[in-house]
Amino acid sequence: MAIAIVIILLVIASIVFHFISPWWFTEIASNWTAIDTTINITFWITGFVFVAVNGFLAYVVFRYRFNKNRRADYEPENKKLETWLTVITTIGVAALLAPGLVVWGKFVNVPDGADIFEAVGQQWHWSFRLPGKDGKMGRSAVELMSEKNPFGLDPNDPFSQDDILINSNEMHLPINRPVKALLRSKDVLHNFAVPQFRVKMDLVPGLTSYLWFTPTRQGRFELLCEELCGMAHYTMRGYVVVDSAENYQKWLDQQTTFSQSYQAKQADIQLGQQLYGSCAACHGQQAQGNKVLNAPKLAGQSIWYLKRQLSYFKNGARGSHKQDIYGQQMATMAKLLVDDEAITNVAGYINSLSQLSPAPTAANIVSKSQLIKGQKLYNNCAYCHGKLGQGNFNTNAPKLAGQDDWYLKKQLLNYQSNIRGRLKGDIYGNQMLLMSKLLHDETAIDNVIAYIGTLSKPQKPKEVNSL
Amino acid sequence: MYTAITDQVDESSHPKSFFYKYIWSQDHKVIAIQYSITAICVGLVALVLSGLMRLQLGFPDSFSFIDPSSYLQFVTMHGMIMVIYLLTALLLGGFGNYLIPLMIGARDMVFPFLNMLSFWTYLLSVIVLMASFFVIGGPTGAGWTLYPPASILEGAPGASNGIVLMLISLAIFIVAFTMGGLNYVTTVLQARTKGMTLMRMPLTIWGIFVATILGLLAFPALLVSAIMMLFDKLIGTSFFMPAILSLGDSVDYSGGSPILFQHLFWFFGHPEVYIVALPAFGMVSDVISTHARKNIFGYRMMVWAIVAIGGLSFVVWAHHMYVSGMNPYFGFFFATTTLIIAVPTAIKVYNWLLTLWRGNIHLTIPMLFAIGFIFTFTHGGLTGLFLGNVVVDLPLSDTYFVVAHFHMVMGVSPIMVLFAALYHWYPKITGRMLNTGLGKIHFWGTFLGTYAIYLPMHYLGFLGVPRRYFAMGETDFIPQSAQTLNAGITISAIIVGLIQLVFIFNAIWSLFKGKMAGDNPWQATTLEWQTSQTPPVHGNWGKNVPIVYRWAYDYSVPGVKDDFIPQNVPQDEVVMLEGNTGNNGENQ
Question: pLDDT tens digit string along A404-439?
Fold first, then answer.
């Protein structure tokens, strides 16, 4: 008895929930309204069946509940009824399938003349490539990938030269132009998904998959990896920005081609040394850092990381938060570096300075249990920053070993309080921001930093350079 | 056909010592209980893992013992344990073992020694799996699908040892399943008693029988993929590994195909859904028929639907791979086959309803769970029509809609049937009834609680919340209210988890204090209720095996005094109502 009433209530509750739920599709931003229509058709048909079947169930349970004076019917089969039910179900299923297949037909056939771009996935970030003026993508191969050539393009392929490389998680597309995304992975499976575009597809190492859509609404849409790609899967985010034609062109003009980046000048260390003069006042002659002035140690940090941070400080992606007092100081100083070449040179000089072990501060004297806790926490960090804290270009993770504890702590606190990581233009900061939340309190921060402190000790094998 | 097995009546060959009777036993009933208890214990581990997972999702940044690695390890182990080590083992190793010989009138499985080995091999696979919690790096966190390349590369948790133990455990499990499965199929085909034609078998046996055949055909695909992945991991082959980087370092692989693994995995994985579902379909049919006091409606159609679903389940696997990067033209084929499978499945639902129609429904605990099953299975089946329709799958794939769908259809629904079956057959297994009051608490908590978990979860999927995310962080498209919803789902999940303790308490308490059941407390027709002792002894039938005279569903036959006629009652022994000499049941 109760069960019949509850089933009716559940059916009503489900319908009410459906109509009042604030959780529903995001406003569509692509041409795929047909997908939404198909889903609506599916909702009507399945909704009808849901109500009919469960309504009937509740009625039957109520109507034919146990009565000791009544006997159940005996009816093994009813051919006619069974045939009718089969036919009606088949029609319903066909009504669902047919529109679905028509729309799928549109999805698999990319319209002629669609633009193309490539989305490249790797643990745990995105980058993009455009074919350039010739409209053709150059050949790429895993064996060719290096710090200098992260996309692994063939430098001898004429089609590669004008390919436009976007070493960022933010891709721009012009509005109202059909575009085919070619999907490529450097390592494991990933998935290209923008909820507002409705379509998604896996990136599979060893082959190129695709999807297509026409962006129909301007805006900045979040790109998510939706195929489990390892520990930091949930931090693999990006953006697709849909621009007007003019804004798109403006953005495009700022991007560099493969041949430009491949032939970019190496750092001139002597010029860098001259430029470093003004940095030395705070960071020290040997770039050893100065706690009193809140200037971190820089010596031995990788060039690519220094370059990125300097340009962040210059363009406000770092140090522009109003609570970031020392960051603001640095932002002012970074503006002294007039162009990318100057940034490269000074980064090269700093990188050439040999790193010193951290000064023994009070926090360095730590208990064994603290180190064990710290090591456990550091296991998460090690995926990107390396087991020895050596940093990794491919995961965009700077070197941590040898860095002073006070600076690491300050930065972790900055990430946790959104002072660093979510400023406009900070490409990989959100990743670190999400990860910094794994440290639930100050003790946890101290523990992990204490452990990082042990990584700089010279006896660690990987740190020893053979002569 | 029936002579070879049924003539064995030498009771002196049955072991007397405790060790051979209850531990190293060849009695199918003891093996069934061993299987069931092991599966339920390991299932409780998986239940706790799901609770931990939900704690993180409901209350992110609150529990310092859950980090992204351990979260993914919980997800992976929860999924694999529930699908393989709980559901498959409990439905086939547990109920299959217990019910097949009893329901077809045999004294035991045809290969009792192999049957015993099957259990001990299964136990070994569970031990190997559990060992992965204690190795360096912990269990694998590659997701229950174990997709390479990620599963065997450094970027995934447990890629050093956990994945190796997982693959070895799966291989051992499949050996165990094969020993059991060959036994079940052979027993059904060879050891049926006199009169038990195939078309007189209870639907429970049909479900288990077809599911076992599916398993025997599908598990080899998983076995080879597990072995191939072990080779890729341990000896450097490249079955599934193209030339790739691993966290920036080049690794020594080239030429393999990650999609090949997915095809092999889902060639197993989709039939696996029906390996779980078909026994559940069968058992729920018998529960509904018995407790509604009415013959199953459209028996032949039900049998053919089971066979058709089983056959079709081998040609739909790539609907799990619409967005995998395989050739998208496959989508047309697999969407069509997938939606076709909805037809026999719908017929089953109609026939359950039409069995209840004009029945005389006893709302016992098994019946409540069976009704709950019809509701949840209808819901889960209908959302399957979204995901099976290839283009609708595009926005929903890899979101919480998928998680909600497969939990409704493959988690909640089979578990509703499992509980229906446990309450239904517990009196036969132990000789005592389970407590009804506790059973009601258990039913309502489980039924309403699981719906409160999974109904709203579908809507997170519409919104676009991706699955297998440790945390969402700040996003532009997910409102804060989604977090509130997640917290609510977590609270429901914890309540549902705790409610299961009521069942466990009931099962243990009733073992000693439950009402005595007698041989046939539900007044059911099938043979297992006609044993002369409850619980049945080794050899099941005493001196003579039963002879079958009718189908399994002679309930409320017009003109007959009782409202049921057991399968082993001959025509001339049926007691008629006074003054009635009319039709008395099926007479094939």
Answer: 999 999 999 999 999 999 998 999 999 999 999 999
Could you tell me which residue, B296 or A456, shows the higher pLDDT?
Answer: B296
| C-alpha–C-alpha distance, residues B191 and B2, integer Å | 6
> Do residue A312 and residue A420 come from a single domain?
no
Do A157 and A252 fall into the same domain?
A: yes
pLDDT for res A458 = 47
Q: How many CB pairs under 8 A join A and B?
A: 354
For residue B410, give every residue at least 6 positions away whose Cβ sits within 8 Å of its Cβ, in sequence order, or none.
Answer: B83, B87, B273, B276, B277, B380
- Cα four-point dihedral sign B261, B264, B267, B268: negative
- Co-location of A274 and A250 in the same domain: no
Q: How far is A377 from chain B (nearest CA, A)?
A: 9
List, for residues A371-406, the tens digit of each pLDDT value: 999 999 999 999 999 999 999 999 999 999 989 999
What is the model's pLDDT at position B182? 97
Choosing from A322, A356, A390, the residue where a domain stops is A356
Domain that holds residue A175: 115-262
Q: Are residues A248 and A294 in the same domain?
A: no
Give, in order, the Cα–Cα distances in Å from B329 to each of B204, B306, B325, B361: 38, 29, 11, 49
User: What total number of domains does chain A contain?
Assistant: 4
| Residue A190, in any domain of the structure | yes
- Average pLDDT per consecutive 10 residues, chain B (588 residues; last block may be shorter): 48 73 91 97 97 96 92 97 97 97 96 96 98 96 96 94 97 97 97 96 98 97 97 96 92 95 97 96 97 96 96 96 96 96 96 96 97 97 95 96 96 97 97 97 97 97 95 91 96 97 97 95 96 91 92 94 94 84 53
CB A374 within 8 A of CB A301: no
pLDDT level of residue A231 (50, 70, 90 thresholds): very high
Q: Is A143 domain-assigned?
A: yes
Instruction: Please check whether residues A278 and A339 belong to one and the same domain.
Output: yes
Q: What is the ipTM of this complex?
A: 0.93
Distance CA A396, CA A168 (A): 11
Best A202, A426, A430 residue to mutate vs chain B (most B CBs within 10 Å): A202
Has residue A462 been placed in a domain? Answer: yes
Residue A280 near residue A336 (C-beta atoms within 8 A) = no
Query: Does A98 touch chain B if contact means CB atoms closer than 8 Å?
Result: no
In a domain, A73, yes or no: no
Question: Per the structure block, which two tokens stand in for B209?
Answer: 């029988």
Q: What is the pLDDT of residue B10?
A: 56
Res B579: pLDDT: 66
Same domain for A234 and A126? yes
What tokens does A75 get? 């009816």
Rounded mean pLDDT, A67-73: 91
- What residue in A sits closest to B288 (Cα-Cα)? A61
Binding-face residues of A in 32-71 toward B, CB within 8 A: 32, 34-35, 38-39, 42, 45-46, 49-50, 53-54, 56-57, 60-61, 64-67, 70-71
- Are residue A191 and residue A238 in the same domain, yes or no? yes
Q: For residue A271, what pLDDT band results from cuts at 50, 70 and 90?
A: very high
Query: Is residue A18 within 8 Å of B462, Cβ to Cβ?
Result: no
Residue ending a domain, choose from A108, A127, A160: A108
Asked if A23 and A102 sit in the same domain, the reply is: yes
Beta carbons of B375 and A7 less than 8 angstroms apart:
yes
Q: Do A209 and B479 touch (CB under 8 A)?
A: no
Chain B residues inside the 8 Å CB shell of A430: 473
Give CA–CA dist B563/B393, Å, rounded: 48
**What token pair was written down for A408?**
């690491």
Interface of A with B in 396-455 (CB under 8 A): 422, 430, 433-434, 437-438, 440, 444
- The CATH number of residue A285's host domain is 1.10.760.10
